[in-house]
Each structure stands twice: as C-alpha cells, then as structure tokens.
Amino acid sequence: MTVRVRIAPSDTGSIHVGNVRSALFNWLFARNRGGTFIVRIDDTDVERSDTANLEDIVSGLRWLGLDWDEGIDVGGPHGTYKQSDRFERYRQVALDLVASGDAYFDDREPDELEQLRNRAQQEAKHPGTYIRRLDPPATDGVIRFAVPSGDAVTFSDSVRGEMRFEADSQDDFVILRSNGVPTYHLASTVDDVDYGITHVIRGEDLLSSTPKHILLARAMGADPAIYAHLPLLFGPDGKKLSKRHGDTSLAAYREGGYLPEAVFNFLAILGWSLGDDREIFTAEEAIAAFSLERVSKNPAVFDTDKLLWMNGEYIRALAGETFVDRARPWVREAVGRDLDETEWATFGQIAPLVQDRAKLLTEVGPQVTFLFTDDPLIDQASWDKVMRKEGVAEILVDAASRLESVNPFETESIETALRALAEERGIGAGKAFQPVRVAITGSSVSPPLFESLAALGRERAVQRIRNAVERLSSG
RNA sequence: GGCCCCGUCGUCCAGUGGUCUAGGACGCCGGCCUUUCAAGCCGGAAACGCCAGUUCGAACCUGGUCGGGGCUGCCA
To answer: pTM of the entire structure?
Structure first.
C-alpha cells in the first residue's frame, strides 16, 4: 500500500511545537515508507482563521527541514489544499448524508441542548441519548450526524492497540453549522477520504473523536484510514501544551537562536526513540528507523533544558565555516549594522572560540560586539566586581605599556607578555587578566583574553585599557 | 458526572517473564582542568504509584486501586 499522510494545521495562529511534532512524525513515517506527505490548511474556523498565519506555517515547516509532496504552497491534484475553498464540497456531503438518512437537520436552540446535557450529566446517563432526535427533522438549523445506536465502533490504533467505543456514548455531533460552514469533523474526514489518506497520525486529544470520523467515513461509503494517536506534549504543569506555557510557537525557537536540526532532533525524541541509547541523530537516521510501533503511549513534558543542551551540541558540531554563516545574522543584529570584509575576517578569527561557548545563536552577538564598536557597553556588575580592587590601575597601566611593545601582536606573544606581568608583580593570573578583560570587552565574561586582544588589535586594545584607567581615576 | 487514554529517576528515553542489586541522556551535586564563561573529563544522589493474583521467578502478564491527562462546543 502506498502511504499517504497529511497534517492539517489550522491558521488561527502561529504554528506551535505540538503541531510541529505531529508534522514531524507524519513526515518521518511518509519518508520511511516512501509515501506521500501532504500539508493542508484547516481554516474552517472562519472567526479566528487568518491567512497571515499561512506564511508562518509554511516557513516554519521548511525551516525545520520538512518538505511535502502535495499541499499548500506546492499544489497538487486537489486544488489549493485550503479547506475554505471546499466548503461547497462539504455542504454537498452533508446534504447527501441527510438524503441517505445518516444525518438530519436540527433546529433546537443551544439553551435547550444545554439543559439536556446537564440533565444527562446529573442522571449519569450517556449524553448522546439526549442529544439525539427521534422526531421528524426540521428543514433548517445545523446538520447533525445520526449516530447509529447500539453498535460499537472498534478500530486498531497503530500506537495504542485495540480501541472500542460504544455508539451510545457518542452525541449526534454537528457536521454543518447553521451558517453553512462545516465543522472540523466533517471537513477533516471528507478531505481524508477525498485525498486518499491511508494513515491519520495526530495527537491523542483527537482519540475520542475518532469514532465520529470512522462513522462519517463509512457513511460516505469509504474505508476509514488507519489511525495512530501520538502522546500529547505537556507543559511543565502536566497539562496539554498551550500558549499559556510560554514559548510554544515554533517561531519563538527560530528567533531564540535555536538550530533547526536541534529542534528537529529534540522533537523526535519526545515520544519516540531509535531503540538504543542514541539521542542525537540525523534526519536520515530517524527516517530509516522510524515506525509507529516504537512511538510511546505516555505524554511527554516539553523540557526546554534538554533542548538547550542539545542546541549547544549541534552548534559545536557545526563546521567552522557553517557556524560563521549561521551566526552572521545574529552578529549583524547585535552590532546594529553590517560588517565590512575586514571585520568579518576578524569575526572569523574568533568565531571558533565563541562557537565552543554558545548554546544559542543569540549568545554569539553579545560575545563579539566589543570588536566592532569603539565604545563597548560596560557591564556595571562586572566593573564593580573586578575594577574596584586595590592595585587595578597599576596593573592596567603596566599591561598597556607591555602590550605596546609586544611584537608581533599575536595570541602567543601577548600571552607571554601578560604572564610575565603577573609573575613579575607576584600576582595570580586571574587577578592580572580580569581587569584587562573588563577593560577591553566591558564584561568579566568574554571569549579567551589573548585571542580577544589579538583580534582587537594593538591600538584599540591599548586605547581601551587607558580609557579604563582614566575612568578609574575619575571615580 | 460520563466516555477514553496513560502511569520506570525532577524531565526525556531504554527495558516486552530470569542476563535488572533497573541502563542512557538532560538537569542537579562534588571533583579535575582553567585567564573569565563555556566545553571536556571523573564521580555521586535520584525511579519500576499502591495492593492482590498468575508463576519456580514479575518493571514486564491479569484484576483492582490510587494518581495524572484528554474529550464531553455551531474550537480544532
């Protein structure tokens, strides 16, 4: 069987990590099986739907390295892959279902239904029994699917095993709203049938809606897809991940300095594993090893500590040139302008040292801005801690004069000169070097000192140390 | 309330009746290295929710219980 899977993100907001994780698993499954991966847009919520979010969805998925064979932005045999363009089709299906007796119009008021539900709850009966309607149908209102009573719906979930839902526990659910717009259940099922979707891989929150979708597909005369329900992603509080958990949009991670490979890898180990101890792996390795059987059943907490660590691993694993390329936009942003060729060369010189230290691309800029401004920002806490000690001014004056005669002005000779300073003055290395560090970078945290001095150049280095001395004497 | 899902270190994952005094990773703690910060290296604390049953033997099977979660909408 040729596998055809899809994801159907809604365009009511920025795409978030839960959806992205579902997308990733669908993609992995499709690529593993040589199947087709489809991206369709679920925009049936006309109130909140916003096409401005389309770009976010498309670019987010691409950024992660996912590609799709049919769907939004790439097209295919099924039109635009936006559900809003197929409302006529869904309406027709709803009407056909009414004609065949599988659905009916319902004009009862929401208030009345609310009362029925409450009564059902109090009496601990199946709510479906109350929502159903046995009297002759009206001719307007919503269209509800008529759940056949008595039968149980059973199916085999590829991750959870055998499932069984009593039909009497299911409401006669709305498939077409009174404004003629289909509900999620209808649109999604019609599309899955029309597009020939073979496997529906989605979050567990849809598990209890699956009987509805199976019933719907059957009423349309189609074979339901194979279902696989992924464990949910939780926030730190153990609840389904949502906006209130902070950064849950993919964009937040992209803008936060994460590498797509790291996010990809991290999302892949949430609810799935290769089966051995490997936790860091490539997309190719994941594709080769992927199977729904290996997907775990229990929910996973989205733990950004581990993502952060993993991002650092990926940054350090980058080839030097690649790191420089990836870091460029972040350096520009931090410096506030583009760099010229000489400056980029300077950055390239010190980049490996920064690469070793960064867990986030956002950390790169602040580490190197001192090289590209005449007046680096001074971190007051660093200054207070390092510069307000006895003898600092003397050390700085001495350092400046030694640096003036260092030749060539390179890492090794600089190190020799400054170590001599410490030794001759009988002070520890840290005591001698920290003031110089703060003087030239503005902070007690920086790339290694001698390399930083070399990159800065003699003239600017000496000038900055003298400026620091002046600042010290003026209080 | 009803229906459904889930239950191994704080977190992610391994484990499918003996090889488990339960393994790896993040995080945490301690140490080494060291010019700061990282990285790296070494070491440590840390879990099978509970109770029955099946079995010679159970983290793995069964039942119950407790706990967590999802759904219960003219949201998806």
So the answer is: 0.94
